[in-house]
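User: I'm curious what two different proteins look like when written out as structure tokens. Can you demonstrate?

Assistant: Sure. I'll show them one after the other, since each token string lines up with its own sequence. Here's the first protein:
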Amino acid sequence: MKVTLSFVPPGGGETDYEVECEVPFLPREGDYLTLRSSSDAMTSDFIVRRIRWHIRASEDDETASVETIVVEAEFALGPLSSDNHKASCSMYEGRGKPPNHFEDSVY
């Protein structure tokens, strides 16, 4: 299924950027998401905050269909976070929104 990954500051807030993605199932709150560029071993790391469902009603309001599923995820620090990602996390921390860290036990 196609979802929109929406990346927000730690604690929530305005979307920093979004990426459309095909997923086999929806992640859950607290799941770790790692984005890796095809040309780089370093990552951008996030923790799922919530799922938002955008649903459109039919003209007669008797049926509805899913228009978009948005997976909102907060910036976090992982063991392979890129320098750019770390800089974004530092910026948020300077604004009083310190990022969470991936637990070492996952690796």
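Here's a second, unrelated protein for contrast:
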Amino acid sequence: MLRSIGSSSLPGGDAHNLKAHVTTAALVEFRSEVWRLDLNKISINRGVPLNVLKTDWRNNAQNEITKHPPQVLQPDEYLIQDLQQTGQNVEYELIIEG
């Protein structure tokens, strides 16, 4: 994370503040969650072709990145904003809780 901040185009003051936060933040702030998604099941549940959903999810991610530069969207990165975890349409499973 420190390397990412150091190589970013953030103004010096912002970079300094972020580095200070990263080096003093509680470790729990950096624990990620790991989810298992079945994209084909999501596509079937929603009755929408997977390629259409991926395009929508990709656009969601790009819109967020545009709002919060200097992030860069990775080739396999999507933002799914409405995953279901109730009823018969369970679309994800939490494997490791952060």
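A detail about the second structure: Residues 50-67 form the longest helix (18 residues).
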